[in-house]
Amino acid sequence: MRRGQVLVIMDKVNLSQQQTQVATMKRDYERYKELYEVGGISKQQLDQAKAQLDVAEYALNSLDENTTLTSPVNGVVTARNFDPGDVAGQLPILTIESINPVKVKVNVSESYYSQVVKGMPVEVLVDALANESFQGTVSLIHPTLDPIAHTFTVEILVSNSDQRLRPGMFARVKMNFGTNERPLLSDRAVLKQVGSNDRYVFVEKEGKAIYTLVQLGTRINDKYEIVSGLNNGDKVIVQGNTGLIDGTEVEIVE
User: Fold this and answer.
1) I need a surface site. Which of 29, 57, 100, 251 has the fewest CB within 10 A?
2) Spatial contact of 59 and 17, defined as CB atoms under 8 Å apart
3) DSSP H helical segments within the chain, as ranges?
4) 3 state SS for 173-232
5) In a domain? residue 1
6) Is 120 in a helix, a strand, or coil?
């Protein structure tokens, strides 16, 4: 469907009847004006006749505008609620959806929230088209997260000039976050400093627990990325670390 294309032509019986009614009411109104000028009716009666004529003309214009329905957008008809000859009810006669571009919605783990940005290119694979790949772009990142699933919704726009992609198709999305070279550490090892937002761990060195501040990155399930604070080979205490103080003698059980 193209914008402006005629979709439905309604029966003009009601339009013809309304035109006849408006013509009759116009003649009556002119006659009422003559009567008013000679004192045959009151101003209130004349005003009532004018108001009734205005309502009838508005109804006529509405019928005239809705006799021929045209498409407001370029798209496809996704629902038809009436057949030729039916009397239209409260439901829309047709539903038209614009499908170029198409919008893909995907739920992403909250651990990637800081890595998804507007304008980010993504790959969309569609099962119904034998996993054919389409290129898309992140258009919207919803600001609220699902507290149960720990996910957030991302909207992606995909060009669909050939209209092969249709509403309701199942798709899978690939996002490239690059390679992760930061070490991951169990969240049980990370402690919060009382009275501040600092995070710290205890590292075992020569039989002692050493208080070590760390900077955290993205949380991935039950692990944190460690941005800074630890070195390769550090032995981080994961269990029994609550209640430790800097310099406490410890024995590490592998």
Assistant:
1) 251
2) no
3) 13-37, 43-66
4) EECCCCCCCCCEEEHHHCEECCCCCCEEEEEEECCEEEEEEEEEEEEECCEEEEEECCCC
5) no
6) coil
φ, ψ (nearest 5 deg) of residue 12:
-95, 15
Please tell me whether residues 43 and 83 are part of one structural domain. yes
Please write the tens of the pLDDT for every residue from 214-245: 998 878 778 888 888 998 889 999 988 888 99
Query: How far is 122 from 155, CA to CA, in rounded Å?
Result: 11
Letter for the amino acid at 156?
A: I
Q: Which of 13, 163, 175 is nearest to 88 (CA)?
A: 13
Domain's final residue, options 63, 95, 127: 95
| Beta-carbon count within 10 A of 214 CB | 21
Domain ends where: 124, 151, 174? 174
Domain check: are 89 and 106 in the same one? no
Task: Tally the C-alpha atoms within 13 A of residue 97's C-alpha that lie toward its C-beta.
Answer: 13
Beta carbons of 182 and 226 less than 8 angstroms apart = yes
Structure token pair of residue 116: 């998804």
- Non-local CB neighbours of 25 within 8 Å, separated by 6+ positions: 49, 52, 53, 56
**Structure confidence at residue 14 (pLDDT):** 64
Please give the residue range of the domain that contains residue 130.
102-174
Residue-wise pLDDT for 90-146, tens only, equals: 677 677 777 889 999 999 988 788 889 999 999 999 999 998 999 999 999 999 999
Taking the CA of residue 81 as centre, how many other CA atoms within 13 Å lie in the half-sphere pointing to its CB? 10
Rounded to two decimals, the pTM is 0.47
